[in-house]
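Input for the complex:
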Amino acid sequence: MSLVADGVSAGYHGRRVLTDASLTIGAGETVGLRGPSGSGKSTLVRVLALLHAPDAGHVTLDGERIAGVRHRVPASVRTRIGVLFQSPRAASDPRLTLADLIAEPLRAVRHPRERIAGRVAELADRAGLTADLLVRRPHAVSDGQLQRACLARALVHRPRYLLCDEATTMLDASTQALVAAVITAEQQATGMGVLVVSHDPALLSRWADRVTEVR
Ligand SMILES: Nc1ncnc2c1ncn2[C@@H]1O[C@H](COP(=O)(O)OP(=O)(O)OP(=O)(O)O)[C@@H](O)[C@H]1O
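Predicted:
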């Protein structure tokens, strides 16, 4: 079982920012990804998350080569990959409460309604989000609280792979530690593979089983 980028090149509006990048995330492992600013790490994450189409190369998920991105990929395939971005504000709909942010991916695939509240409560508890925070909207919580809601949301489908793009960079040390602990616990329980993109060598050496580079 693995999530693989094979010879991926990608860019925006005809400008190539990533050339022939390859990366494998195996079940249960934590892979670090580093590289200079602007080298295309976030672009590679978006390609792996099936959000951005490569110009060349391909993504293979558990042995199946994926064609297309976003809604062209069946939900049963897309939901195997979770993503946590650097900026929780940019990634969150400001109109939704934290509870609805966490529930939304379940509603999107018509998850049985009677099971949604329980799943949201379970993940909120793991992410340390109290009931009074869950009824607030993003503007009324801190970056750390919002990132914890984004983490709960990213895990809501029990993904086989979680892609973390500088996901703890903006957070204070205690929130960083909580996010890492929740991810590690999920990994130990489910065998989820994790990609950690970071500029921080100490974080990578602490967290990743191996580190690879985009040039
Ligand atoms: N949506 C976009 N539209 C146009 N250009 C973009 C877009 N996203 C990224 N780029 C450009 O693509 C290049 C690579 O960006 P990317 O964010 O993938 O690199 P990165 O290695 O993650 O950088 P950093 O370490 O600074 O986050 C940069 O020159 C960036 O300006």
